[in-house]
Amino acid sequence: MADLDQNTVTDAVIAQMATTPDPRMREVMESLVRHLHGFAREVRLTPAEWLEAIAFLTKVGQACTPIRQEFILLSDTLGLSRLVNLMDDKANRVGDATETSLLGPFYREAAPHFGYGESIAVHAKGPEMMLFGRVVNEAGEGVPDAVVEIWSTDAEGAYDLQALDPQTMDMRGQFRTDAEGRYAIRTLIPLGYSIPMDGPVGAMVRAQKRHGFRPAHIHMLIGAEGYRELITALYLGDDPNIDSDTVFGVSESLVVQPRMGVEGSPDPSVPAIRYDFQIARRAAHDTTGRVGADPSKVAAE
Ligand code: BEZ
Ligand code: FE
């Protein structure tokens, strides 16, 4: 039996795990062990520090509830959700399809249905805007009957789950595109907001002297028969944190600004954003781009 040292222990672990029958699990676990061990060697991790890290991860798990996923928040604030998202986009995004963004923890299934141009602000009050445009395919043709789901904070920067009792939905809804692929949504101009800072992830963000804010944004989830589900968000360009999103979700092509006088707006008396979303045909090998939703619901698709 050979004595292990701080370098050979890594190969010993990997050799023992070589019996793993699932090849993808074997690949992922081997790489994880190599990187974890490499990380511990690089920072010369001490026992006290490792115990502190375990206490932190324990608190992250304990902060999770059916409506709060602190581990996803940790993944988001470490940029890991965005990295997984970007890799999925690179592997699966077709042509000029709209770029994706984070699903975030505030998506809810079964949001209320609305008709063309109706308002999703049932309870919340504040300055209004219109969001309208088309859902198109790779040829620029309208996709009829696509489901356009939208959710955002209200004008004070709170999601319904934060502002109202958990049974009440507001500032979210489902629309269907018309025969030409058009959609129109009346909503409030959202405000940027702080990610939940009252748990262990918030403590980490504060310890790093980060501001913890996301720039104002509007989440969209668009689906149509035979097309890849598009999970994205539009970001308001005038938000002071547009270049320093705590969860790294912003891309240039998703930055917008509500303005008066936008041609074709269903209500010219309020500012509007016109945005066309391009969705791609579903390929046989497609997997979901969701990071943040309940995987059992995704698998059932
Ligand atoms: C959000 O978009 O609402 C969000 C995304 C990641 C972490 C926290 C919030
Ligand atoms: Fe959000």
Helix content: 25-40%
Number of helices: 8
- Poorly predicted runs: 293-301
Shape summary:
globular
Spatial strand order of the main sheet: 3-2-7-8-9
* DSSP summary, beta strand count: 11
Distance between the termini: 51 Å
Attached small molecules: benzoic acid, fe (iii) ion
Mean pLDDT score, rounded? 92
Order of helices and strands: HHHHHEEHEEEHEEEEEEH
Structure description:
With 301 residues, this protein is an alpha/beta fold. Helix content is 28%, strand content 17%. It has 8 helices and 11 strands. It has a 5-stranded mixed β-sheet with strand order 3-2-7-8-9, with no helix packed on it. Helix 1 packs antiparallel against helix 2. The longest helix is centred in the N-terminal third of the chain and has 21 residues. The protein starts with 7 loop residues before the first helix and ends with a helix. The site of fe (iii) ion has 4 residues, from strand 7. The site of benzoic acid has 9 residues, from helix 4.
What's the layout of helices and strands?
Layout: H1 8-16, H2 23-43, H3 47-62, H4 70-77, H5 80-92, E1 128-136, E2 147-152, H6 160-163, E3 172-176, E4 182-188, E5 193-194, H7 200-207, E6 213-214, E7 217-223, E8 230-236, E9 255-256, E10 272-274, E11 277-278, H8 295-299
Parallel strand pairs: 1-10, 1-11, 8-9
Antiparallel strand pairs: 1-4, 2-3, 2-7, 5-6, 7-8
Helix pairs in contact: 1-2
Bound molecules: benzoic acid and fe (iii) ion.
